[in-house]
Amino acid sequence: MTASAFRRVAIPAMPATPLAVPAGGRIREISGATMGTTWSVKFVGSSASLQTLHRMIPLALARVIAQMSPWEGQSDISRFNRLPPNQWQELPRELGRVMESALRIARESGGAYDPTMGALVDLWGFGPSGPRRAPPPPDEIARCHQACGWRQLDLDTGARRLRRHNCGPIDLCGIAKGFAVDLVAETLFELGIHHALVEIGGELRGHGVKPDGSPWWVEIDRPAQAAAGVAAEPMLVALHDLAIATSGCERGFTRGAQHFSHTLDPRTGWPIANGMVTATVLHRSCMEADAYATALMVLGPDAGADFAARHQLAAIIRFSGNDDAIIAERTTPMLDQMLS
After folding, report:
1. Are the CB atoms for 253 and 131 separated by under 8 Å?
2. I want to staple 196 with a disulfide (CB 3.0 to 4.6 A). Which of 43, 57, 121, 137 is the partner?
């Protein structure tokens, strides 16, 4: 894909010169299903590498599911959620990494991202119990909300163990998919593959370049309508050792004239209703981009833009203007520096 005059182009500073593409290398592709969605990997390598990846990538993804899926009754997270309060559970290495990042971003965002939302996610019909067609009773929302709160968790990073002080279950769906992208990318590195684009459910991470020396281009679509004075062109991003994750509010259910987003505000226990449409974050880590995008959706246009600027996040925030049919957009200073 090449940039055109009708696209904005974002090119990040490269942390290092890419390794040379193997002589005669060509782009190969492998894909499959995972976590209720699909995954794909494009890479520069041999047919022998393709056969190896057919084995290794599903194994990496299976580790994420076995540790972090609330839909798997024997996953590490599900077993932790059944523990009584104040009892420690040792964590596998990958889950320890995710919990450390999850709690740090929860602290940074003032709880706009919160990994202890399992009870509310399930109550609103977005968890293992299945979908619902109407909002739950307010008293049930209040009861589940009392069980949430990232401060209830104690993470002992040295011993890699976790405990909680009440019965609120953990839900890592706002960060685990991004981590899975990172884990697949790390698996490629371990196999000596340094030129690749990894994608799971629309979240991506790219490294190196294509055989012709061009980067892995990813287009961020622009809504069809934009507020006056906001560029309507889509944005093309060069994923030079960079990941991208987007959180939106399109999933959910409608009751009468009201849409209830699957993105819940941990501070209220209710779906967000702040005008946010999408939040896209560029970051070296897809795991962190995933969680930060969720936090920006909850914070809303103003507080989200301020938060992203303070934490030097490259982000695009899209939200409804005064007229709900009009979509406005803000980009952060870190992203503006990438625009050519």
Report:
1. yes
2. 43
